[in-house]
Please model this.
Amino acid sequence: MKRQTTVFLIAVMCLCLFCGYRALNSQAEVKAYAATAAGKAVEPVITVLNPLGTPPPLELKAMAPRLDTLEGKTIYLVDDGYPGSDNLLLEMEQGFKETYPKTNFHYVKKSTFMAQKDPALWAEMQQKADAMVIALGH
Model:
């Protein structure tokens, strides 16, 4: 009994919405017909809104200059915490050490979450690193 009542109420609400929508269209049609009969041209007015808005302009930045050589340099390999990036960086470190034996490679893991800055690590790298490689997810 309760289910039948619920279905009936939903049907009545849908019927009311349909009839109300049709009545609104009818009023608009009546106004348009009256304007046309009076000799006035009626053009439909359409308003379109863009939900995305306008993005701010991009500020282009120059790339960091390349090092002349990696010999004797300190390169930081920074893990931002994305799953699997530690495996990638450790493999890279091993391969780099074989290819560049005179270069010091230093693997570090950020103490903050992926997108957050790690001021202590950035300060350390500014003092000690000549370059860095960061493993960003995706």
In short: Residues 72 and 102 are 5 Å apart (CA to CA). Residues 1-46 form one domain.
